[in-house]
Specification:
Blueprint (H helix, E strand, L loop, with lengths): L2 H43 L4 E13 L10 E8 L2 E6 L5 E4 L3 E7 L1 E2 L2 E2 L5 E6 L4 E6 L2 H13 L1
Antiparallel strand pairs: 1-2, 1-9, 2-3, 3-4, 5-8, 6-7, 8-9
C-alpha cells in the first residue's frame, strides 16, 4: 500500500474519532456543570452549610459489600457540615454522613487501580466500607475531611 492511501486512512479514522468523541465530551461537560448548579441549589434548599464544593470530581468506587456503588466514574462532590455528597454523572448518588466517617487516608492506588500519579482520598466509614474520591484541590479536601472527623 502506498504512503498516501495509508495517510488518508489514518486521517479518516482520526476524523471519525473526533466526530464521535467531541459530542460525548461536550455532553459530559454540560452534565457536570448542570450537576454543580443543581447540587448547590439542593444544598441551599436543605439549609446545609457547604464546607467545600460542589466541584467536579472522580468517584473511584467503593469496597465490595459496602452498599455504595462499585463502578467508577465522573461526578460532582460537595462536603457540608452534615455529609459528603457525591453525584455521579451516570448512576445513583452517594451520600456519606460526616458522623459515619471514621478516617481518611490518601493513596495512588485504590481497589487495585492506579490513579495515574494522582492521589485518591479514601474515606472509611463506621461500617468498614471505603469510598474513593479524586478532586483537583486534594490537599484542601483532605484537610476539610480530617477536620470534620476531629469535630
Amino acid at each position: 500500500m502506498a504512503p498516501a492511501p495509508v495517510a488518508l486512512l489514518v486521517l479518516g479514522i482520526l476524523a471519525l474519532q473526533l466526530m464521535i468523541w467531541i459530542p460525548v465530551l461536550l455532553w459530559l461537560r454540560r452534565k457536570s456543570d448542570r450537576l454543580v448548579v443543581d447540587l448547590q441549589r439542593d444544598l441551599a434548599v436543605a439549609g446545609e452549610h457547604t464546607v467545600l464544593g460542589p466541584v467536579p470530581a472522580s468517584y473511584r468506587g467503593a469496597t465490595s459489600g459496602s452498599g455504595y456503588p462499585h463502578a467508577k466514574g465522573n461526578s460532582v462532590a460537595a462536603l457540608t457540615h452534615r455529609r459528603l455528597v457525591i453525584r455521579r454523572l451516570v448512576g445513583e448518588p452517594v451520600e456519606i454522613p460526616v458522623a459515619d466517617i471514621t478516617s481518611v487516608r490518601e493513596d495512588q492506588w485504590f481497589l487495585r487501580a492506579y490513579a495515574s500519579g494522582r492521589l485518591v482520598a479514601i474515606i472509611k466509614t463506621t461500617s468498614g466500607a471505603e469510598v474513593g474520591l479524586m478532586v483537583k484541590n486534594h490537599d484542601e479536601w483532605m484537610a476539610a475531611l480530617r477536620a470534620r472527623i476531629a469535630a
